[in-house]
Amino acid sequence: MHKFVLGFFYFMKAEEAIRDFTQYLSLQKRASALTVKNYALDLNEFFRFLDAESGNLNLFEISHQHARGFMAFLIDKKQSPRSVNRKLSTLKSFFKYLVRSQVLTINPMQKLQGPKIAKKLPVFIDESQTKKLFEGYTFKEGFEGLRDKLVIDIFYQTGIRRAELIGLKESDIDFFNGQLKVLGKRNKERIIPFGIDLKRNLEEYMNVKKDTNLQNPILLVTLKNKPLSPQNVTKIVSGALSAITTNSKKSPHVLRHTFATHLLNNGADINAVKELLGHASLAATQIYTHNTIEKLKKSYNQAHPHSGN
Predict the structure, then answer these.
(1) Fewer Cβ neighbours under 10 Å: the N or C end of the chain?
(2) Active site residue: 147, 149, 256, 274, which one?
(3) In the annotation, is 86 catalytic?
(4) Is 185 a catalytic residue?
């Protein structure tokens, strides 16, 4: 770290502090490149706000009032409570790092609380719609159609995230044991089993990929032998879901939500679902139980003579 002492304070420029922090995230915390990029974007936005509002402050001059002003600024810009809270989390992590590194003695963000987030149930498609997706939706002919169908199939049968799907390599597929090796958040690996249907689809796709002379070790590629981009994947999923649901959300995450909800609806153990999804805590998985409970309530209200319906 580049710093010099004056009195009891270490002086460091914001750019240097951000650079050191992002290096720490990348090298020691093993955060993904996308995570590191998002942290840097959040921090640069905060310091641009400070420069505009208060001039060029030293790090030790920054207080929780400055962070509150930043949060108010974000809310005025119509940013969602979730987005505001994420940026506040970035500031807390950044200043916590500066305290640990003895650049500061106090974390001014420590006791700050962000806006409350209204709890929303995850959007998913029901089992009849899923059947329609795989049996009634017509994909393109040739390699691209086969690939697009496989994208949908992998999402629904494994519940992986978009970034995890894009990063899948051919070598991550274990056909003998019927499982995928997935590199998730914080570079944590997990193993996800898959069934015979997905095995057949993977084998067929990889044979056609080879016949098309596409030799990229990344599993899912374009006809130019380039990995699919996040935009490519979202477009594939949105197009397919638009044909079978009127839900406003048609993102890859809807299929992840569908995977988890269908497993729990059919009696899967919640701890097993947690491991399959790659969640760090059970609390993140428990939100899917609300969909299961709503389904049980509906069945009860329709069937029980004393339900009042």
Answers:
(1) C
(2) 256
(3) no
(4) yes
